[in-house]
Amino acid sequence: PGSCLILDDLMVEPIHCYRCGTSLAVLSLPLSRQDLCPDCGVQLHVCRMCSFYDPQVPRQCLEDDADDVSEKERANFCDWFKPASGLFDEQRFRDEQQARAKLSSLFGDGDADDPDADPALKDAEDLFK
Question: Which of 18, 34, 36, 101 is the most buried (most CB within 10 A)?
Fold first, then answer.
């Protein structure tokens, strides 16, 4: 029944994307290395999505036998991976959205592939015609 953590045949809690909070009920467990969040597109078979992830310990992993993974938000092949529930950090998500909005206001939302969206870019493109 979708992506719910199961403990001794009892459904415990549905899992959500660690980055945006979207329910992952449309995905089947176990999550594959290629699974992406249906909303934000972030990779899900990552340390940040694992029940063994703990930023307060060395290597940020509670499983001593797990291989060291340097990029905690990139898909990996860890055999110890076990998706955890309750990892979504709403404050971090809001901070990220505010930072993106500030960048957008500084640099604009123009379509980089449309030279007409930015007159300076259009002038530069015209140099090569």
Answer: 18
Rg of the chain on CA atoms, in Å: 20
The first and second tokens of residue 72, run together, are 């905690």
| Structure-token match 């899900």, residue found | 44
> In the chain, which stretches have pLDDT less than 70?
1-12, 109-118
**Measured distance CA(97)–CA(116) in Å, rounded:** 27
Q: What is the model's pLDDT at position 2?
A: 53
CA 96 centroid distance within chain: 12
From residue 62, alpha-carbon distances to 17, 43, 54, 81, 97 in Å are 20, 21, 7, 11, 30
